[in-house]
Amino acid sequence: MTSLVSVEDLQRLLDTFAFTSGMGMRVEALADAECTIRVPFRREFERPGGIVSGQVYMHVADVTLWCATKTRLGLDDPSTTSNLETAFLAPAREEDVLCTARVLKFGRRLVYGTAECRNESGKLLTHHSITYARG
Fold first, then answer.
1. pLDDT tens digit string along 39-50?
2. How far is CA 113 from CA 19, 42, 92, in A?
3. CB 52 within 8 A of CB 44
């Protein structure tokens, strides 16, 4: 299936809203029901101990699945997060975070997906299970 949106479409969407543009998120790649977003490292993302705060991973995972749903449902789709579960597996330190989300199922009322955050060398940092309520 062909994506209904382009990398440029999704980047414009992310640049439009403060909740996404404020983190400097960049759309790296997309395919049908899949998206990868980069969050560039910033000192303000650090928590005590010099590691990237958990809220960064959770935020980018949610946004990345949001973008993955739009590849099939379009830019105007109003679906919203109904559940997000996160497993923190390893810390990032002074490095970008890359998140890839995949939709597992588009149901009539719910969308089910997963996301994984990794560092530049591919080390798995977090795993997320996410459910969206279709609008």
1. 999 999 999 989
2. 21, 27, 23
3. no
